[in-house]
Structure formats: C-alpha cells, structure tokens
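Example 1367, ligand iron/sulfur cluster.
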Amino acid sequence: MNETVLYNVAHEPAYGLLILLYFFLGGMSGGAFLVSAFSRIWGGEKYNTITRIGAVSALVFIAIGGLCLLLDLGRMARFIYLFTHFIVTSPVSWGSWIILGFSICTLLFIYFLMVKPDKDKADLVSKIGIVFAIGLTSYTGFLLSMGKAHPLWHSAIMPPLFLVSSCISGLAVVLLVANLMGKKTPGPDVTGKLGKILIAFILVDIFFLSDMYVLYVGIAEANEVALLLLVGKFAFLFWGIELILGSLLPVAILSSRSLAVTRQWQLIASIFALIGVFSMRYIFIVVGQYLPIS
Amino acid sequence: MIKINRRNFFKLGAAAAAVATTGAGVLKAAEVKEGGKDFSPETGAERKAIPTACWSCVTRDAMVGFVEDGRLVKLEGHPESIRGRGKICSKGQAGVNQLYDPDRVLYPMRRVGARGEGKWKRVSWDEALTELADRLKKLKDEGHPEKFMFHYGRMKGSSSKIIKSVFLENYGTGTVGNHTSICEGGKWVAQELTWGKHYDNWDFENTHYVLNFGSNVLEAHTNSIPCGQRLVDAMVDRGVKMVTFDVRLSNTATRSTEWVPIKPGTDGAVVLAMCREIMAADLYDPEFLPFVKATAAADATVEEKVAALKRHLDGYTPKWAEKISGVPAEKIKAIALEFARNKPACVISYRGAVAHYNGVETERAVQMLAAITGNIDNPGGRCKAVAAHWKYPKGPKNKPKKKKLPILDGFKGDIAYPNHHANHQVLKMIKDGQAGRPEVYMWYCYTPVYANGDVQENIDILKDEKLLPFTVSANAYYDESAALADLILPNPSYLEWWDWEDMVSPTQVAEYYIRQPLVKPLGECRDLKDVVCDLAERMGFPLGFKSAEEFVKMSCEMTPGVREAGGFEYMKKHGVWHDPKATPAFYTYKKEVKPEKLKKDGVILDEATGVYWNWKKAHAESETAARETGYTKTKNAYKGYVGQLIDGKVYKGFKPDKVNKSGFLELYSTLLEMKQFNPLPTYFPVPEHEKMGTDDLILTTYKVAVHIHSRSGNCKWLSEIYHENPAMINSRTAARLGIKTGDKIKLKSPSGEIVTKVQVVEGLVPGVVAISHHCGHWQYGRYASGKQSPQNGGGDERDSRLMWWDSHGVHPNWIISNRPDPIGGQQCWMDTVVNVTKA
Amino acid sequence: MENMEKREMSRRELIKWTGLGAAAAAVTGVAKRAEAAAAAVGDKRYAMVIDLRRCYGCHACSVACKSEFDVPLGRWRSWVKTVERGTYPNARKHFLPRLCNHCKKPPCVNVCPTSASHIRPDGIVDIHEDLCIGCKNCIAMCPYNSRFTDPVRKIARKCDFCIHRITKGIAPSCVNTCPARARIFGDLNDPSTQVAKLVKRLPVLTLKTELGTHPHVFYIAADESTTRAMGGGE
Ligand SMILES: Nc1nc2c(c(=O)[nH]1)N[C@H]1C(S)=C(S)[C@@H](COP(=O)(O)OP(=O)(O)OC[C@H]3O[C@@H](n4cnc5c(=O)[nH]c(N)nc54)[C@H](O)[C@@H]3O)O[C@H]1N2
Ligand SMILES: Nc1nc2c(c(=O)[nH]1)N[C@H]1C(S)=C(S)[C@@H](COP(=O)(O)OP(=O)(O)OC[C@H]3O[C@@H](n4cnc5c(=O)[nH]c(N)nc54)[C@H](O)[C@@H]3O)O[C@H]1N2
Ligand code: SF4
Ligand code: SF4
Ligand code: SF4
Ligand code: SF4
Ligand code: SF4
Ligand SMILES: [Mo]
C-alpha cells in the first residue's frame, strides 16, 4: 500500500535553543548542588572545596539557565504571572516555583557556607535544597513526558533519566572546575572518588538507553524516531557522541587505574561527559520535535 | 469517545443514506446561523456587510464583503444567493489578498527604458489618457480603427457590455480578441454545432447518475461553487453514483464513486463505444430522438435515425476503445448500460475532454451520449444554461461600421469554425504580418505572455517594437505581460468596481446580481469601464453614461423584475435578485412556436433543413436570394432563426448561435460535412500521440483548487498553500525512467525545455507527466515570484516578512506549443509530447 | 494597546490573587468578554463534526480562517492534510481538515503555568490572551500541532471555534464557507442539533483517541492512516 503526503503544514518547533540551554544548565545546576550537598553530608572536611565548587556552580548555572528561560518567554515582562499562579497539573508551574526555591536555597547555602558561615543553617538549607534540586533535575523530565504525541518524550523513565543525567553533568562540571583550581585542587582521592561516582551514574544512564529498544518496537511513530536515532540522520549524534564519546569513553578513562587519577584525563573525561549530557538534551529537544506529529 | 473500527467503518455506506449530513439551509432554532454577519475577533464589534460578487474565477459567485475601519477584512458567500447558497471557495476568500497585494500597481506608468527593461516613470492619468486618446483618435480619423486591437481575458457581465458592446463598437474596431480558445473554446463550438448555445448546466439536484469526462467540477469548473456543492449533496445525501474519467486522480475523481483513468485525448473513443453499446441494447430514448438530427434528411423517422446511428457506431466497439484508451472494454460497456438505465443521468465534460486536437469531436460524442438517452435539457440531465437577461443602455444610436484585422481566427484554412477565435494564434499572426498588424495593442484581464503556449515566442513578439509599436496593459498587477507594455493603466481589483452579473444558475432559475466596490479604489486606480467613458468623451463620442456605476444603475432601472423589486437601491442593499415566481427552465426545445410568429414579415421555411427563419432579421439581400442560397449557406442566417419543423409541428427547438445550424440537436452536422469532416461524431487520434519514443511522455496541465490560472499567485494565503508545481509521474513510469520523488528532470519539446522537480504518485495514468499551470511566475509580485513590483504598491506589510517559501515552481507553457484543433480552434493544451530525462 | 492590556491584567490578577474573582467581577461589572459569554452557556458543549464523505479538500475552510483572524503566514489555526493512498489504479486521496480539537482533557491546559489556557464551561478551549506569557509549553504539549506563537504579539494562539461569532449565533468562519457542508458545528449537549445526531448515529473517529485527550472534533469516514502523524511517511 503506497502512501504519499500531498499536503501538510510544517509547524515551527516550540522549544528552541534557549530551552535546550536551559535544560542543560538547569540540570547541571541541580546536579552540581546535589554533589555539593551530598559531599558535605557524606564526605566531611576533605570535600570542602567540592562543596563550594558545587554550590557556586549551582548558583551560576541556575542564574544563566533562568535567564535563558526568561529570554525565551514571548512576553518577558509577564514572567511574574508564573508566581501569581500555582497550577498543580503543570510541571512548568511546579518548575517555576522550584527554580525560585532552589535559587533561594543555593544563595542561602553559599551565604551560610562562605559569607557568614553557619553550620546548622547551612545544614538546613542544604537539606531543603536537596529536595528542590531533585525537583529541578527531574521536573523537565516530567514536562517532556506529558508530550503524549512525542514518542521520545512520552515515557515514564523521563524524570529519573533527567535526574541521572543531571547528576552526571553536575559531577562532571564539579570535577572539571576542581581540576582547574590549580593548587586548590583537591587530592586524587577526592577527585578519584567523584570519578567513580560519575562512572556509576553514567552506567545507569546507559542502562536507560535501552529505552531505544522500547521505541524501536513501539508504534509506527515511535519506531520512526528510533530509526532516526539508531540508523538515520541522528545516528552519529546518538552512537558517536552521546554513547561513545559522552558515556563509554569517560567510563573507560575513569575506570583506568592509571588515567583515572591524572588531572588531564579527569579533565578530558569530564568534558566528554558534559558533551554526552548536552547531546542527550539536544536529542530530546531537537530530535523529539523533528518528526511531524500530525 | 466512539472509536471506529474497520467493520463499522464499512457499514457507513448503509448508514449514510439514513443520516444525510446536512440539507442546505435547513436550520433549527438550536443551531447557529450559517452566515450573513461577521464580527471583529478583537473587539467583538460587528463588521459592515456589503453585498458584492466574486470575480476571481469565472463562476462569479455572489458574496458579502465585511469591512472594518474602512478596510476589507473578510469575504463570505452571499447567503441569499440561489446559486452559491452562501458558499465561496479558497480563492474567493483570498480576494482580500487581491485587494491588498503589496505589489499592486497604483499609478499610471510610462516605460522609459527599452521595452521590457523594467524602467518606468510615473505619469498622471491625464498624461496617460491624452497620449492614448491621441493615438486612438488618429487611427479612427485615418479610417483605421481596426488597428486598435483590444484583447481581453475575462470580461463578463456589464464589463463586456460597456467596453465591448458600447465603447469598442462605437469606436469602430472589430479587432477584439478574447481568451476562449485557450480556455474551453472547443467545447463551445461543439455545443454550438449540436444544440446551438455554447454553455451547459448540469442538474445535479435532480440527477440519478453522473458520468464525467475530464471535468474537475469540484476543484475547477466555470460554475464551480454552485455546481460542486450540489454534486456533493447528490452523492452523499442521495447516494447518487458518479463515475469520473480523468488522466489524474483529481479531487473530483477521488470523491467520485469510481475513478476511471484514461489515456489523454482518447475520451472520444470511449464515449463512442458507450453510445454504440446503448444503441445496440436499444436503450435509446425514442421520445427524444424526434428532436435529434442523425441523418442528412430533415424529415427522417425515428427508425431511420436509430438505424443510421447504429450503422455509424457499429465499428466503435468497446474492445476497439479499450485498445485506444486503456479503459477495459467490460467497464466501458457496464458504465454505458448503467448510464442509460439510470434516468435522469447527467453526462458532464470539460477541458479534459476538449483541450485536445480531437476535442470538438469528443464533445460532440458526449452530446450524442446525452441525446440518445434523452438526458438533454431535462431535470437531472445536461441542460441548456439559464442566466439573467439584463437590459442596459446601448450607447450612441449611430454606430460606425466596424472594421477588423483578420488576425483573430488563425491562419487561413486551419480552423473550420473559429466561433470563438484562435487567441493563441494572434501573436503568431502579428509576427507573420500578412493579415496586418495593430498599431495599438491593449490587453485587459489577460496575460498574453503567460496564458498561452510558446511563452518565449510570445515574449519576443511583444517586445518587438517593429511588430507592435504601442502596447498598453490595463492591470491591477505587474504581471509578466504588463512588464512588456509601454503604458500601464492602473486598474482596481474587482473588489473596488461596479458590475452587474449574469452567470449561469445551477437551478435553471436566473439570478440577477451585482458587484459593488467594498472600498474606494486604492491609489489612483481607475476602473477601465470608467476610463473608456472618459476616452470616448475625449475622442468625441460620449457613451451616454459617465461611469460603470451609472451604467449599472441605469441597467437596474431598465431590467424588468429588478426594476420592480426596487432597482438600483434594492440591488445595492441586497446584491442579488431572482424572480420568486420563476420555475426552473427545462425542455425549452419542446415549446411550440406560436403560429402568428411564423406569419411575421420575412419568415420563410427552408425546405432542406425544416428551419423557419426570418431572412430580414438575418440581413439577407432579398427573399429570393435567401430562398436560393438557403438557410444553411446564407451568412448569419441563424440570427433570423424562428423555429424548427418536426413532424408537422413547429418547435422552438435548439436555437442556433454563431453558426447556421438547424433547430434540431444536430448529431449529424451538415456544417461539418461542408468542411469535409464526418457529419456524425467520430474519433481521430491526436497525431503526436501516434509516434512517441520510449522516453516520451504526454504532458498534461491542470488546475488546482487553490489557484486561478496565473492570477492568484499574488494571493499570499493561496501561494502559501500551493507555490510549487512538481511534475507528477506515476510510480511505474518513474521506475521505468529511474526517477524518484525530489529528483530533477528535464522536459523537452519542440517549443523548448524546462527543468523541474518530480513527485511520484499513484493517482495518474502511466506514461503521463502532469504539471499544473499556476506556478513559475517571474513577475507578479513577491508572493508569486519573490520579486516586488516596480511600484511596490502597498509597501511593506507584516506578512511579507513572514513569507517562508522561496521556491515558485515552473511554468509548463514554455514547452507547450500553440496549435489549434482543426474544427474549433481550441488550443491543444493536453496533447504535448515531451521527452523526459533526469536533470 | 500593550499598556492597556497590562493594566487590565493586573487588576484581574489582583482579583484572582485575593480570591475575590467572581464577586469583584460582579460588583465592578467588568467581566471579560469570554467570562460573560461563558456564564450564559454553561450547559453547552460545543463540538464540530467533519464529514469526510463530503470534504473534497478545497482549503476554503483554512483560508476563511486565515482571513477571519488575519492569521500570519507560516501559522495555521486550520489546515487540510492530504494523503494519497493505494496503488494505481486503485489510489485515492484522503483529506483531513484540521483544527484545535477542543479536548476535554487537554494537555495544553494542563501544562499552562498561568491558567491562560483554559476550558470554558461550553467546552471551548481558549486562551486568555492577557495572561499568556508566551512560554510555548502548550504548543509543545498539544498532541495535534494545533497551536502556534503569534509572531507579533508573542503569545500562544489557536482555533477558538470562532467564539466571537458563535456567541452571536453565527457559525464559525470555516463552517460558513465550506462548500461541501462537510464541517458541522453545534452544541453536543442538545440532542436536536446536527452534531449531536451525527455523533450519536454515525460511527465517528477522533484523532489519536488512544491518548485520552477526548477531542471534540469528530470525523465521519476518516481514513485511519491519514489521521496518524506518520500517515504516508514524511
Ligand atoms: N480552482 C480553479 N478553478 C477554476 C479555474 C482555475 O484556474 N482554478 N479556472 C476556471 C476556468 S477559466 C475554467 S475554463 C475552468 C476549467 O475547469 P476544468 O475543465 O474542470 O479544469 P481543468 O483542470 O482545466 O481540466 C479538467 C481535468 O481534465 C483532466 N484531463 C486532462 N486531459 C484529459 C483527458 O484526455 N481526458 C480526461 N478525461 N481528462 C483529462 C485534468 O487532469 C483535469 O483534472 O475552471 C474554472 N475554475
Ligand atoms: N498550460 C495551461 N495553460 C492554460 C490553461 C491550462 O489548463 N493549462 N488554462 C487556460 C484557461 S482555461 C484560461 S481561461 C486562460 C486564462 O488566461 P488569462 O485570462 O490570461 O489568465 P489569468 O491568470 O486569469 O489572468 C490574466 C491577468 O489578469 C490580470 N488581473 C487579475 N486580476 C485583475 C483585476 O482585478 N483587474 C485587472 N485589470 N486585471 C487583473 C492579472 O494581471 C493576470 O495576469 O489560461 C489558459 N492557460
Ligand atoms: S468559485 Fe471561488 S473563485 Fe470562483 S467565483 Fe466562486 S468563490 Fe470566486
Ligand atoms: S487540540 Fe491541542 S490545543 Fe486544542 S485542546 Fe487539544 S491539546 Fe489543546
Ligand atoms: S504560551 Fe501562554 S497559553 Fe501557552 S502555556 Fe505558556 S502561558 Fe499558557
Ligand atoms: S472554528 Fe474558527 S478558529 Fe477554528 S478553524 Fe474554524 S474558522 Fe478557524
Ligand atoms: S472547506 Fe469543507 S470541503 Fe473544503 S477542505 Fe474544508 S472541510 Fe473540506
Ligand atoms: Mo478557462
């Protein structure tokens, strides 16, 4: 049976570059905060630098990310309506409040950490911050999973997937910055440990990629997307960048006994991992909107 | 919700009959009204409604324009129109774009550089008209008014009367061209040779069966919106079967019960085979045959006619037709019998049948099919058109004897009955020069360059100042032809001018309606109808009215019915009028002529044909001369036609027009016999199709639902939908040629070559390449060609920034040559053989 | 214009914020157009039936819609998807006139962070233009591509069933012009209307029924393949 579309209209994609950037930066910010907060809870003194790097990165990235979101609004001045409403069904509404809460917590955290150190208060805000950070890293996944007509989005693994990949980018960026601190760079025991954790998250992330199989065997539209990624136009991005460069190589580097502890290789591995996460976000935004849905 | 599964999907057919979706105009209190009002979505304020009429295509539906803050914002069908019943199509809707085309020509322009170079200077109307009037007056005074050639495309209703019947007649030129031969001229000639009048109406409201040869009635057609909607009603509400023969899966074909693909130019064979089967099965209608002429004799009996037809048709077997057309013989037979048994049945046909070398014969065969089954002028059949009869002021009493250059009807001997001229031969004849050349060539609502074949030749001729010393375009837009004018007179769009209108009614009840300006003409635009009043005044023969508005007003006060209803004021307010007491006009041929009419001075009986005619009215020399030469051979004898003698009674019969046909429905045409054609409808193949190579395909061109010829390319809402016209090719042919969708191909013909993209489809006969004729503009403004006009009329607008397409398709007419069919002079659009290779 | 809108909005916001919406609106008598209309039509459920036995793919509806709202180029409230299916000579064209489905469970409304997108009591899914921040999330979440960003006003827009006409008793613009009378509009809750009868008596299809959005545009005799996103491939 032959089928040819003789006429249909092309719709501009709703999510563009700014949203892509936000998805990346917001996730990275939340991830960095989690690294910061947990290194403080579980790591002790040794991890002070990591905690600080994480907290500051979180603040910087949420600021830039938030700005991207703001700039993306058609009516920027009306952003205030995001905070005159709370819509239970809307991940965007949740997200807005989460961003607000998260930013406040991060600010306070830094304040009680670095400006006017106060251990108890820092403890408190870090714990509240963890809740917000988890929200921040996963709500975007919730949002996309509402996109029922996009097979790539409409999946229950989206929130955990976004959480995990945010942690990857958070870890990677902290590792990156840590290695750029010159003398202040923590010892290989610390960075090495971060590297190990990064491996773990990447492995979980790779496991999530099995979702591709689900897509592949799914309904026609899903299959179409899977083919696009597995063998089509975006195959290089998927296999080459996201999987090999962004996931397998960092794992390989960080699990090599000799390379894992050297500064250069840690730098390289973290950059690769960041590229991996970015390409994952790119795939979800760009490829997710690539095929016609109507 | 209710999810449909395959099984109940198929049950739909049965359910359909029980639940007709909508009967037109049936409204319950609970329902919203269909129309008549519109409001601003922004403010909610009611928009001002002004009745008018569309003019985008020749259908000319009555409309209502909605105006907000002095700007036209919306057009809708006129809810009180009995023709359109409140509906208009996409092109009608996009009329708003015609009015506000940012590339409109708003001021008179005089060429300054070489012709066609694109250098212009703005001049005043007075300058423009002084120059034109001087030139025209000079020709007239020298005794050569015929050297002013006026060439129009669409000019109907009062426009035609003011410009042609009053202005040009009083000026004295008969060198007046039209565009009918590139349109459906062959059909008109065939109908004139058979039943007299040129136009038919298809009574879908009462029909039980529709058989279609090459009409895309739903997407195109000259009476589209009125007929199309009634056809859908018939098919869906009453379950009427429709079979469509088309080379393409047009939207009409796809909506039909059955699409029968057919090789281009072979419909005639199929129709003849159908006639044969019907005659052979004795399914002819003996009641109608007395009104048919089927033999040389005017007094043949029905039996003799039946015998003659059977004899003539005998060789046209379905098997024979199958070999020619590719349509299976059993199918031909089955459809023929079904058609004959389902009375009333309506056989329809349009340019797909007639725009061929053998088109007139095909159309005559179609008339035969309708005639032998008695589906002529009957409820549910193929009817003689009914339209409004306006009375109008005819201008000064003493008209000069008009003269004309013999360049309108093609080269000598090429065309037997060029009743509607051979428009596509005009430029060739001007080049040839033997029959003379116009000194002033002016065209209006017509694009000589683009609408005809052989585009390059047209350009070369129009550009040549030696061939055409002075060219004038009266136009609202800067089209490809206006670019070659010396003077451009800015015309408003049809939404800014006055007219009365008279297009054919689908219900056989005439509708009177007018077109009135919805806004004041933009810029310095002036309606050509007003301009000719001015020109006539300048040349010293005032027309008796000063403007189109006055003419329309006078017509309203003169026309019986309209006058009593309230005349001009009524029409301005209501836009449409029809006689509420009128009944549909069917079977007009059966009316007997009153005896006193036969006794009138000058009326004589022509024994050979049985025609009563008034030799005086026909301007014959004398009664003796008239009797001696006879009706058939006396020039313009048809103008004196009174009635037809049949079995001792005199009937109104099928009144002739344009040629001296008898009052019978002539299947046997003495007129054609006189010109060495077979008097009965026959089939002869398209010569080029007989000698095709392996990589040769037949090029067919067609119309799509969202464009009108070339004239709608400037409509952003339409070009947004359709701005590319890829070459459609059947997958089998594509496979054979190693071509796939998106590939570029080169099409070559003796006229030239074009390169275009391919769209492989299933809905097309193999061996054919189909390209619509709407795209490929190189002028006509930004939305059509990406190029702004020299005046950049309305300037910048939001949407010109948002225009998102930059491809504009390819015009097929570069490679179609201008050739007339031998009988009627119809341009053989759909016959072109092209050589196709990958580019 | 812009300013006026803002002022109006802030008052409206204030009212919302303080939970005095209904009362304040009644007192001040400044209920918005949409709200006023909604109050009167609470028992209605507007819907459209598109009879694909009748539709012949002429695009009159979509152009009428463009004109009614002066919809910018490159954006559509309505369009007519056309798919060719089958193998020669048994090929057919299938037409699918599209517009917002006015879903009963609309993801676009669910995702809207400001309640600009909302369902009216008469079932119409509409946008409070003055509340829309132009975040485009509703556009991304609509499974039917029914929405777009207005390139000038930078807010989300879409088919609104021609509220400005139907509330005054006049059919939507696309319905008005459809020569085939393939588009039928009316109140589904009133059993005497055409739409109610058709939906009750004929098998109808809604788009992507499986998504649970409960569209209120019903198609008669739809070709299932055409209704799918991938209908006919790319
Ligand atoms: N949308 C739209 N409507 C229009 C117009 C327009 O430009 N656009 N123009 C108006 C005018 S001026 C006219 S004259 C009418 C014309 O109205 P139509 O004659 O109905 O339209 P066309 O597209 O010229 O041709 C009709 C069909 O003939 C088919 N065809 C081609 N060759 C053959 C053949 O050999 N046999 C058969 N059986 N079919 C064949 C084509 O595929 C096409 O579908 O439309 C009028 N209405
Ligand atoms: N290949 C191919 N060629 C064809 C056909 C085909 O089927 N195939 N169809 C043929 C048919 S059926 C016909 S009828 C002819 C039509 O041939 P034309 O009548 O020449 O073509 P149009 O595109 O209708 O309009 C001609 C010009 O009218 C002008 N115009 C438009 N609106 C207005 C207005 O409001 N005022 C004024 N003054 N001018 C205006 C525009 O500048 C436009 O260029 O084309 C024929 N050409
Ligand atoms: S069919 Fe369309 S373009 Fe032609 S007159 Fe009617 S509304 Fe206008
Ligand atoms: S079709 Fe899309 S925009 Fe319309 S109500 Fe449904 S989800 Fe919302
Ligand atoms: S664009 Fe407007 S309507 Fe859409 S979700 Fe955002 S605020 Fe709501
Ligand atoms: S109902 Fe109104 S807004 Fe919706 S598609 Fe029809 S014309 Fe457009
Ligand atoms: S106007 Fe009617 S017939 Fe034409 S495409 Fe739209 S729904 Fe179909
Ligand atoms: Mo035509």
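Summary: The interface with chain A takes residues 721, 731, 741, 759-762 of chain B (CB under 8 Å).
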